[in-house]
Write a structure and sequence with these properties.
The complex is a heterodimer of chains A (161) and B (456).
Chain A: H1 9-36, E1 48-56, E2 61-63, E3 69-70, E4 76-81, E5 90-96, E6 102-110, E7 119-120, E8 133-143, E9 146-158
Parallel strand pairs in A: 3-9
Antiparallel strand pairs in A: 1-2, 1-4, 4-7, 5-6, 5-8, 8-9
Chain B: H1 16-42, H2 46-49, H3 51-70, H4 76-107, H5 112-134, H6 144-176, H7 181-209, H8 217-247, H9 249-262, H10 268-282, H11 288-312, H12 323-368, H13 375-381, H14 384-393, H15 395-420, H16 429-444
The chains are: A alpha+beta (161), B mainly alpha (456).
């Protein structure tokens, strides 16, 4: 007598196939991660961020004391000491809001050519106040047009009320 | 007629799956306690507004303690009943407390009025989703109480489990990684991993504890999708209130449309249905290695589907103007559609196997002459539409009794199927009890339902 094949086996094979597809997606994710987060890029360079200050957009200046949190209706900007980075290093500085959107940027350019003024956070289109949450400011080293290393990082809280 | 009280795969002790379920529940409880403590410490406004749900939770805890203490003083029959009540009250108290924390965590941005309106807007859509999911199993529908428990787990327990762990992961990643696609990919992986683990545990616990109501891949998909719909409900309320506080009601309305209409079956429901499919397939495999592999593959698929949506959404940028609306729909179809299609294929395969075996087992049962299923009933019981016609033909008074009779007969056929495949750890006497129940139901059904001759 020939034993009847288990009728659940096609389902088992199907779920295994789906598992293999999942592994392929993870592999693609790892490739993506490594291409945007390339290993072996650490140079040990550290950029000095003087601080994050209240920003006056009318005369494009930052003032007051360095702070870590701001109200929603308070513009703010970061000040970077570009001389703390080797002059030929290509760098950029960017602000990200709590949704991960770029809301301010200077560069990329060699550190010696970076503008010395404050780097402000721009209001998203259609809004009169900043979005609340954690804002991220980074100074990045650029290689072949792509950020490869964070030279300085600041987290700023925009209050919800 | 002889009854042999022997299981198809007899075990002398309580099945190991109960021990696994208890260990899993204990770990989850500790995680929830830690999450609850963190929430309490970080939310300074809980004492003022907490009375709404906090006091009933305290009252339920007091009730659980009182009933639980009563269990020590009564005879064995009452003791079991008291323990069950105490456990139920305790679970309700825990759910209320978690709901309280969720309400504060997800809705504090816009205040209770916006949160209540958002929740009200999501109730009909989530209810419709549950109704559809419940109807997926055409042969033997899952009990509503278990489907709703699964939904409540997704809405309250799973969301509580992931809040802090995802928060901690994102806090770590933002301090270490380069902002951009790499960071997005790592956060997407965190969301996929932790959220699917938190949701899938509910399906795993149902599989371990409620084996009688967890028959195959179809049931796994139903329970999984129900958990996903619950999670989607709470997440939508959270996003709607947050966006309402930032951009106003139009943004909240769009969020409602995207999550509760467009993505209702494509997002979380599909992801957790994949977990359920893996567990449902494992339910019918005999080799332990294959069981573990099937569960792992289902879970990996869910994590991968969730990861792909979160990480690669930016590869489908939206334009401006009228075409944006079309793009939003196409994006969901292109990114989540393939995974939903996989769930549908597994569902259809599972339904075909289930239907074929039910018919065969009904024929075998009818051939025994025990009277639980008569030969003339097999053709009716084997097709959902014919079962419906038979219920309608019984008239308003006969509809429900005939429905109960049909359910018991289907249950018997499923029991026979599992016994044939050595998938049961209940004694054979349980099957005989089902036959007795069917005879009793047949007597209470209308006279025109065919009656079996009395055995013996």
């Amino acid at each position: 007598m020939i034993a009847r094949p288990d009728e659940i086996l096609p389902l088992y094979r199907a779920i295994k196939l789906v598992g293999i597809l999942a592994m392929a997606i993870f592999a693609a994710g790892i490739v993506e991660f490594l291409s945007f987060e390339p290993p072996g890029q650490a140079t040990g360079t550290v950029a000095r961020v003087a601080g994050v200050y209240a920003y006056d957009s009318s005369n494009r200046s930052a003032g007051g004391t360095a702070r870590e949190s701001f109200r929603r209706d308070e513009p703010f900007a970061a000040v970077v000491d570009w001389s703390s980075i080797p002059a030929g290093t290509v760098v950029a500085a960017r602000w990200f809001d709590s949704f991960g959107e770029v809301v301010g940027q200077v560069g990329p350019a060699p550190a010696a050519a970076m503008p010395p003024g404050p780097i402000p956070v721009a209001l998203p289109a259609g809004l009169r106040r900043n979005i609340p949450g954690t804002y991220l400011f980074v100074v990045e080293r650029i290689s072949h047009g792509q950020p490869v290393e964070v030279l300085a990082r600041r987290l700023i809280e925009v209050e919800r009320t | 007629m002889s009854i042999t009280a022997r299981a198809a795969n007899p075990r002398h002790r309580r099945p190991a799956r109960y021990r696994l379920a208890i260990s899993l529940a204990a770990v989850l409880f500790l995680v929830l306690v830690a999450s609850s403590a963190l929430s309490y410490l970080s939310l300074d406004r809980i004492p003022g507004r907490g009375a709404l749900l906090g006091l009933p939770a305290v009252a339920l805890m007091a009730g659980a303690t009182w009933v639980g203490l009563g269990a020590f003083e009564h005879n064995p029959a009452d003791r079991r009943r008291h323990r069950l009540w105490a456990a139920t009250l305790f679970a309700l108290a825990l759910l209320l407390w978690l709901l309280l924390l969720d309400v504060f965590l997800f809705t504090r941005e816009a205040g209770p009025a916006a949160a209540a309106l958002s929740a009200l807007a999501c109730l009909p859509t989530t209810g419709f989703g549950l109704w559809v999911v419940h109807r997926l199993d055409r042969e033997e529908k899952e009990p509503w109480r278990l489907v709703l428990v699964a939904t409540a787990w997704g809405a309250v327990v799973a969301t509580s489990l992931v809040i802090w762990v995802e928060g901690l992961f994102q806090s770590w990643s933002v301090h270490v990684l380069l902002p951009g696609p790499g960071l997005d990919a790592s956060n997407a992986f965190s969301a996929g991993l932790f959220e699917e683990l938190a949701k899938g545990v509910a399906v795993l616990l149902l599989y371990l504890v409620m084996r009688d109501e967890f028959h195959d891949v179809v049931d796994g998909i139903v329970y999984g999708a129900a958990v996903g719909l619950g999670f989607n409900f709470m997440e939508t309320v959270g996003y709607m209130t947050y966006l309402d506080s930032l951009f106003g009601p139009y943004a909240a309305g769009f969020q409602w449309y995207h999550r509760q209409v467009l993505d209702l079956f494509f997002g979380h429901a599909t992801y957790t249905a994949l977990v359920g499919a893996g567990i449902g397939i494992a339910r019918q495999l005999t080799s332990r290695r294959r069981q573990v592999l099937a569960i792992a593959c289902g879970w990996l698929a869910a994590i991968a589907a969730h990861f792909a949506w979160d990480a690669w959404l930016t590869f489908f940028p939206l334009g401006t103007g009228a075409v944006t609306l079309l793009q939003v729909h196409l994006r969901v179809l292109a990114m989540n559609g393939p995974f939903t299609a996989v769930v549908l294929v597994l569902l259809l395969l599972g339904r075909r196997i289930e239907g074929r075996n039910l018919e065969r087992q009904l024929e075998l049962e009818a051939a025994t002459g025990e009277g639980a299923v008569e030969p003339a009933e097999v053709a009716i019981l084997a097709r959902p539409e014919r079962r419906l016609r038979a219920r309608l033909a019984a008239g308003p008074r006969g509809y429900l009794p005939v429905g109960r009779l049909q359910r018991a007969q289907i249950e018997l056929a499923l029991e026979r199927w599992h016994r044939e495949r050595s998938e049961l750890d209940q004694p054979l006497a349980a099957e005989q009890e089902l036959r007795e129940q069917i005879r009793a139901l047949r007597l209470s059904a209308p006279a025109d339902v065919p009656r079996a001759p009395e055995p013996g």
